Amino acid sequence: QVHLVESGGGSAQAGGSLRLSCEMSGYPYSKYCVGWFRQAPGKEREGVAAIDHHKWTRYAEDVKGRFTISKEYFEDILYLHMNTLRPEDTATYYCAADPGGSGCTSAWAVTMGYSHWGQGTQVTVAS
């Protein structure tokens, strides 16, 4: 059974950095699309970044150049390196996995495409 656990959230000042981690246990899949989503109060959950087994990456427009998603082949850990944080990045961040298949598609940011979710980790950015 796939189990996702996020960590690394917390508080930061605008312009600062945080690194989120997502440990993926029970994850035997060699083909996958995994990603980070976030949800701010009163807003819908939105895709932040995704990566697949081809190392194909995609980012939401407002995080391009600031956030980097990564996953090593030998680690079942997904990372999100967040730099130059802004107050509008404040949200609960979730990792998600779509195991199997052929990897990420142009619909990577659609929440329905992911079958496994973590519980989330809070990120708060002060101005």
List the helices and strands and how they pair.
Layout: E1 3-7, E2 10-13, E3 18-25, E4 32-39, E5 46-52, E6 57-59, E7 67-71, E8 77-82, E9 91-99, E10 116-117, E11 121-126
Parallel strand pairs: 2-11
Antiparallel strand pairs: 1-3, 3-8, 4-5, 4-9, 5-6, 7-8, 9-10, 9-11
Question: Would you mind describing this structure in some detail?
Answer:
- The chain is mainly beta.
- It is 0% helix and 50% strand.
- It is built from no helices and 11 strands.
- The strands form 2 sheets. Strands 2, 4, 5, 6, 9, 10 and 11 form a 7-stranded mixed β-sheet that branches.
- A hairpin with a 5-residue loop joins strand 7 and strand 8.
- The radius of gyration is 14 Å and the shape is globular.
DSSP helical segment count: 0
| Unreliable residue stretches | none
The average pLDDT score comes to: 93
Order of helices and strands: EEEEEEEEEEE
Cα Rg: 14 Å
Cα distance spanning the termini: 40 Å
Q: What is the 3D shape?
A: globular
**Residues in helices, as a percent range:** under 10%
Count of DSSP strands: 11
Instruction: Give the helix/strand class.
Output: mainly beta
The profile of the biggest β sheet is:
7 strands, mixed
